[in-house]
Amino acid sequence: MPTAISSRSSTTCDSWASAHDPERATEAAEARRLGGLRRRKEGTIAVAYDLPGLDSVDGIRRLLEIVSTDGLGMENGVPRLRALISTAVAATNLLKVGEFEERLTALETAVGQRSGADENAAFPAEATP
C-alpha cells in the first residue's frame, strides 16, 4: 500500500511529465496562450472599470459599486434580487470595517499624543524617556 508521501510525489512527477511530454506540446502551448489572454483581460478590465485592487477598502468599495450598478441593470427576477441582496450585505460589512479602521486610527493617534513615547518602541510603556 503506498504511503501519502509516495503517492503525492508520484502525482507531482506525473503532472510534470505530462506538462513536458512532446506528445502534449500543442495542449501545453494552448494552455500558455489562454493563460496570457487571461492576464491581459484582467489588466484591461481593471483599467476599464478603474479597479485599484481588492487589497484596500477603496478597491472593494469600487467593485461593489460596479456590481450594484450591473445588478440594477439586470432583468427583474430572483437572480437580480440575490445579486442586490449579496451586494448590500457585502457593503454593510465593508462599512463596518471602514468604521473600525477610522476608530482604530483615531485611538492610535490619541494614545500616541498622550504618552509621548517613542513610536518605534514595541511596548511604549517600556520606552526610555
Short description:
By secondary structure, the chain is mainly alpha-helical.
Topology (elements, then pairings):
Layout: H1 4-19, H2 25-48, H3 57-72, H4 78-115
Folded structure, characterized:
It is a single chain. The chain has helices at about 5-20, 25-50, 55-70, 80-115. It is mainly alpha-helical and about 130 residues long. It contains four helices and no strands. The protein folds into two domains: about 5-50; about 50-115. The model has no long low-confidence stretch (mean pLDDT about 75). Helix 3 runs antiparallel to helix 4. The protein is about 75% helix and about 0% strand.
The helix content is over 70%
The secondary structure category is: mainly alpha
Instruction: Give start-end ranges of low-pLDDT stretches.
Output: none
SSE order, as H and E? HHHH
Report strand %: under 5%
Ends distance: 66 Å
What general outline do the C-alpha atoms trace?
flat
Number of domains: 2
Secondary structure tally, helices: 4
Mean pLDDT comes to 75
Outline the biggest β-sheet.
none
Beta strands, count: 0
Rg for CA atoms = 25 Å
Task: Supply the key terms.
mainly alpha
